[in-house]
Amino acid sequence: MGLEPTISFPKLTQNTRQPSRTYRLDMETGEISEQIDGKAAIEQFITKAILTIRYHFPIYSADYGCEIQSLFGRGFHERMIRSEIVRMIQEAILYDDRIERVSDFEMSAVGDEVYISFQAETVEGIISYKGVI
């Protein structure tokens, strides 16, 4: 009889990617419609994650959303704001395992609006994002 305990280890399972099926949300009207999956679901996630103010809505975890709004009106230098916008967007969407890389950021300010575009490399292909923040 040995002094080592008998330990059994569970079989290793291979992780499989879960479907990203969700409901389409019309960002203008707030209307919810048919189910979407794949590239359309990732595009919607990116838009919602950027436009949702982090820590503001108790329905979302602290991982979800973006803090870009905290930069405006505080007297920060434009270069610092641009750098932080890139970081905050990457932080808001890269935690999702469907998104592999975010790059090629471009920004322009017109009045009170900031127009942004970037490329997101995803498991469904490249998504070109353009929007106002």
UniProtKB/TrEMBL annotation:
It holds the Pfam family Sheath_initiator. SUPFAM superfamilies: gpW/gp25-like (SSF160719). It comes from the Bacteria. This is DUF2634 domain-containing protein.
